[in-house]
């Protein structure tokens, strides 16, 4: 059985080297966007894995004031909460040179993602898509963005022809209510990266790519098997 041809994997012996390589690659994408269109748009994931990448990217010399930064998904908590993805981005990415970048949050302060959906959707609709780069992460359970196994709106979020840009998501293992860009929105990008670390995630990814056993149902498989945008996996141990 062969892996989908749309995926290339860049493996690194250390996570610092991975962070540097991806930061240089994404910065190059953003510079191209600035040179060709006068602006650029970047969507990044949260969680814990992107910290080193964010630190490297934040020091890249480019005209950050013209780079709009948003999230691929958010936990429905205020930025004062340690689990906020926006907090992570502010702390680790929007500093140094990148402090000048405008940030477009998905969290609106409404009581629920359903209540904030229209405002979040309007924020994404106002971006000049396609993205120049989207950087996804992945959990051990095969979730990416907030496409969680068992998610109440998973099928809708993964529908490649769906019209929603953003959707709420509730799932048993998500921790808190979520909001997520949908798959067709994430695929409106000039470059798509999947940043993963650790042996466990390497195995999850390999199984998901091949559709082996339970991994056939891992949401990340929808990203790995689509043919719209090539996926570059950046992996470190
Ligand atoms: O909850 C989330 O988890 C994933 C993976 O996070 P990590 O801590 O295992 O790196 C992340 O990609 C997603 O943006 C986040 O909301």
TrEMBL record:
* InterPro entries cross-referenced by the UniProt entry: 6-phosphogluconolactonase_DevB, 6PGL, Glc/Gal-6P_isomerase, NagB/RpiA_transferase-like
Give the range the annotation lists for the signal sequence: none
| Molecular function in Gene Ontology | 6-phosphogluconolactonase activity
Q: What is its EC number?
A: 3.1.1.31
SUPFAM superfamilies, A to Z = NagB/RpiA/CoA transferase-like
According to its UniProt record, which protein family does this protein belong to? Belongs to the glucosamine/galactosamine-6-phosphate isomerase family. 6-phosphogluconolactonase subfamily.
Spell out the protein name for this chain.
6-phosphogluconolactonase
The record ties this protein, via NCBIfam families, to: pgl
Q: Which residues form the Glucosamine/galactosamine-6-phosphate isomerase domain?
A: 18-227
Taxonomic source organism: Rhodanobacter lindaniclasticus
Q: Does the keyword Oxidoreductase apply?
A: no
Keywords recorded for this protein, A-Z: Hydrolase
Q: Which residues form a coiled coil?
A: none
Give the GO biological process terms.
carbohydrate metabolic process; pentose-phosphate shunt
Query: What is its biological role?
Result: Hydrolysis of 6-phosphogluconolactone to 6-phosphogluconate.
| EC top class named in words | hydrolase
| Reactions performed catalytically | 6-phospho-D-glucono-1,5-lactone + H2O = 6-phospho-D-gluconate + H(+)
Q: What pathway is this protein a component of?
A: Carbohydrate degradation; pentose phosphate pathway; D-ribulose 5-phosphate from D-glucose 6-phosphate (oxidative stage): step 2/3
Tell me which Pfam families the record gives. Answer: Glucosamine_iso
């Amino acid at each position: 059985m062969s892996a989908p041809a749309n995926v290339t994997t860049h493996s690194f012996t250390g996570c610092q080297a991975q962070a540097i390589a991806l930061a240089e690659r994404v910065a190059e994408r953003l510079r191209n966007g600035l040179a060709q269109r006068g602006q650029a748009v970047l969507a990044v994931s949260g969680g814990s894995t992107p910290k080193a990448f964010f630190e490297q990217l934040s020091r890249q010399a480019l005209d950050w004031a013209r780079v709009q930064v948003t999230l691929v998904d958010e936990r429905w908590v205020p930025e004062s909460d340690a689990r906020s993805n926006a907090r992570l981005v502010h702390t680790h990415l929007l500093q140094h040179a990148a402090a000048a970048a405008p940030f477009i949050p998905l969290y609106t302060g409404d009581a629920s993602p359903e209540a904030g959906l229209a405002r979040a959707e309007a924020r994404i609709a106002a971006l000049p898509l396609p993205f120049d780069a989207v950087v996804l992460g992945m959990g051990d359970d095969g979730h990416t963005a907030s496409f969680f196994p068992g998610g109440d709106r998973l099928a809708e979020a993964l529908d490649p022809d769906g019209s929603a840009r953003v959707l709420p998501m509730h799932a048993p293992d998500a921790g808190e209510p979520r909001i997520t860009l949908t798959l067709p929105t994430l695929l409106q990008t000039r470059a798509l990266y999947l940043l993963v670390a650790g042996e466990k995630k390497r195995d999850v990814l390999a199984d998901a790519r091949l559709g082996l056993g339970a991994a056939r149902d891992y949401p990340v498989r929808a990203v790995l098997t689509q043919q719209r945008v090539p996926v570059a996996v950046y992996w470190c141990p």
